[in-house]
Amino acid sequence: MKFPRLSPALAAGWLLVAFFTASCTTTPPVDPKLLNPATNSAIRPEPRDANWVKRHESFVALPKQGIDVLFLGDSITDFWRRDQTERQVGGKKVFEANYGSLRTINLGISGDRTQHVLWRMQNGELDGLAPKLVVLMIGTNNTGFETDKVTQRNSVLETIEGVKAIVRGLRAKLPGAKVLLLAVFPRGEKADNPLRVQVNEINRGIASLDDGQFVRYLDIGPKFLTADGTLTKEIMPDFLHPNSHGYEIWAAAMGPTFTELLK
Questions:
Q1: Which residue intervals of 24-91 are DSSP H helices?
Q2: Which residue, among 184, 158, 77, 165, has the nearest Cα to 121 in the 3D structure?
């Protein structure tokens, strides 16, 4: 009997379904559409524009030997290398003060979603790396809507699967590394902001990735907020990206877990 030939995207999707079914027998089944790259763009590795590809290529060319800590994510990670004078956000001096003595590599790119990080992981950025620790935060750019205010980017459930795919990929490509998975930082000024609500739901979904051994989930979001859940401009001027003070809060709140996992 001859079976129909599946496209690469569909085949990859059904492999993910099989993986989930085999490894999560005690949890309710997940909609196969969420595990299929053909229907869930958050798990379908994709590049961006030409300038983005050039930046990716510059990351591939970086020296990789002897790296202890890998930072991976979007603009919030990317801006560890920026001075606060640029758009009033950035944490370069904070990074140097806290991590300057370590051998680090920052693979954050502004604007990235889970699908873009997956593409970079599959196209050379992790080659030659053997860090002790990976600090990962990704997913905020999967939320919300496109500029036409009509087309939704990714649903909460799609984004959760995108983060899960990245963590699985890190475990496969960097088996000797611990993964510090950070909850997506709060965004929007008020607690009832729709984007904040989406982020909170994503965080609840990815918290289960903490396996107590190789992957540690850490939510430091409350450290940025006032008692009533307000996010102030004194910490994130655009209600999304930390300024220098915000990066100081990040480094301090992450410090104990970071040090524990690095050892």
A1: 50-60, 75-78
A2: 165
Average pLDDT of the chain, as a whole number: 89
- Active-site annotation, residues: 75, 238, 241
Tokens of 191: 């607690």
Q: In this predicted structure, what is the pLDDT of residue 249?
A: 98
Structural domains of the chain, ranges and CATH numbers in brackets: 59-262 (3.40.50.1110)
Q: Name the nearest CA neighbour of 45 among 102, 105, 121, 156.
A: 121
User: pTM score > 0.90 for this model?
Assistant: no
Cβ proximity of 245 and 224 under 8 Å: no
Q: Residues with Cβ < 8 Å from 19, sequence gap 6 or more?
A: 168
SS3 content of the chain, % helix, strand, coil (to 5): 45, 10, 45
- Mean pLDDT for the stretch of residues 131-147: 89
Per-residue pLDDT tens digits for 142-199 = 998 655 554 568 999 999 999 999 999 999 999 999 999 999 999 999 999 999 999 9
Q: Is the Cβ–Cβ distance between 137 and 73 less than 8 Å? A: yes
pLDDT of residue 30: 85
Distances (CA, A) of 206 to 14, 39, 166, 187, 210: 21, 20, 11, 17, 8
142's tokens: 């999967």
Residues 126 and 174 sit within 8 Å (Cβ to Cβ): yes
